[in-house]
Amino acid sequence: MTAYAIAHLRPTDPHPEIVAYIEKIQATLDPFGGRFLVHGAEVEVEEGSWPGTVVVLAFPDMAQARGWYESPAYQEILPLRTRHIEGDVVLVPGVPDGYDPARTAAKLRDAAAG
C-alpha cells in the first residue's frame, strides 16, 4: 500500500544549503522507490491557516518510507534543510484499493452505539 511523506515547510530567506539539499535529495529517494508528487507548492487555504509550502513524496509502502527517512544518506543531508527551514514532516500510509469511507462510518457508528 502506497505511503507518503508529507512536509509542511515554512521557509525563510533562500540559503545555499537549501539548494544543496534539493540537489542531493533525489539520490536518497531512489533506493526506496520514493518520488515527488508535490514539491514546494504554494497552497490555496480553504480552512484554517497554512503558512508556507507543502511537499508530498510517495513510497511503495511504509517500510520504504521509514527506510528512506532513517537512511544514513538522508540523515546526512537533512541538516542542510533543518538549519534553515522550520517545518513538520509526517509519514502516513495510504488507503488500500477499494477503500470505502461508508464502511469506516458504519464501524464508527457501531462503536459509538456500544
Textual characterization of the structure:
By secondary structure, the chain is α+β, with helices and mostly antiparallel strands. The chain is 41% helix and 29% strand. The protein is built from four helices and four strands; from the N terminus they run βαββααβα. The protein has a four-stranded antiparallel sheet with strand order 2-3-1-4.
Which structural category do the helix and sheet elements fall into? alpha+beta
Could you describe the largest sheet, including whether it forms a barrel? 4 strands, antiparallel
Spatial ordering of strands, largest sheet? 2-3-1-4
Shape: globular
Portion of residues in beta strands equals: 25-35%
Cα-to-Cα separation, first versus last residue? 31 Å
Low-confidence region ranges: none
The count of β-strands is 4
- Summarize model confidence as the mean pLDDT: 95
Descriptive labels:
114 residues; alpha+beta; four-stranded antiparallel sheet; 4 helices
Strand-helix topology:
Layout: E1 3-11, H1 16-29, E2 35-42, E3 53-59, H2 62-70, H3 72-82, E4 85-93, H4 101-113
Antiparallel strand pairs: 1-3, 1-4, 2-3
Helix pairs in contact: 1-3
